[in-house]
């Protein structure tokens, strides 16, 4: 396999829409996803990276950076990460993670965070292998 990581483009919108739906096991409104994707793609405080094999997207990661007072600097947070099931356990997630770590650090981030649902045990194991510290608890309020 000759997979590689590149910055996402507007041409990746369909693939990323499919990845988001698969990640959440839910069909989202395409127009809404495309509008948000287009806005985020061109925001300098966002990273959208795509894993590609034989010129087709096989995974992606999105990461948003923001200035936080209590960190006295920029904090990067992975918002979504997905690798197609048939490409898992082949190092694709590790490649995406290495790239997002390098790029967020180069953009001045002092920390990289990720949140995942507690039921995603495989994802939690992956993030721990990638040296994320399991030290926080995220609470959610729904409107």
Describe the protein in words.
This protein has 143 residues and is α+β, with helices and mostly antiparallel strands. It has 4 helices and 5 strands; from the N terminus they run E-H-H-E-E-E-H-E-H. The protein has one domain (4-129): Aminopeptidase. It has helices at 13-24, 30-41, 92-106, 121-129, and strands at 4-7, 46-53, 56-68, 73-83, 109-114. The protein has a 5-stranded mixed beta sheet with strand order 1-2-3-4-5. Helix 3 links the parallel strand 4 (73-83) and strand 5 (109-114). The protein is globular. The termini are far apart. The model has no long low-confidence stretch (mean pLDDT 94).
Overall structural domain count: 1
Number of helices: 4
Round the mean pLDDT to the nearest integer and report it.
94
- Major sheet: size, sense and barrel closure? 5 strands, mixed
**Distance between the first and last residues' Cα:** 44 Å
> Helix amount, in percent?
25-40%
Shape: globular
Q: What would CATH call the architecture? A: 3-Layer(aba) Sandwich
Strand tally: 5
**Class inferred from helices and paired strands:** alpha+beta
The first-level CATH class is given as Alpha Beta
Q: What topology does this entry show?
A:
Elements: E1 4-7, H1 13-24, H2 30-41, E2 46-53, E3 56-68, E4 73-83, H3 92-106, E5 109-114, H4 121-129
Parallel strand pairs: 4-5
Antiparallel strand pairs: 1-2, 2-3, 3-4
């Amino acid at each position: 396999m000759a997979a590689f990581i590149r910055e996402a483009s507007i041409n990746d919108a369909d693939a990323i829409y499919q990845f988001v739906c698969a990640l959440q096991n839910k069909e989202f409104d395409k127009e809404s996803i495309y509008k948000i994707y287009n806005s985020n793609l061109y925001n300098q405080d966002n990273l959208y990276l795509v894993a590609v094999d034989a010129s087709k997207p096989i995974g992606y990661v999105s990461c948003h950076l923001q200035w936080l007072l209590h960190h006295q600097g920029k904090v990067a947070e992975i918002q979504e990460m997905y690798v197609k099931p048939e490409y898992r356990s082949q190092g694709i997630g590790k490649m995406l993670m290495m790239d997002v770590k390098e790029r967020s650090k180069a953009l001045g981030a002092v920390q990289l965070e990720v949140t995942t649902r507690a039921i995603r045990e495989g994802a939690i194991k992956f993030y721990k292998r990638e040296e994320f510290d399991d030290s926080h608890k995220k609470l959610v309020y729904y409107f």
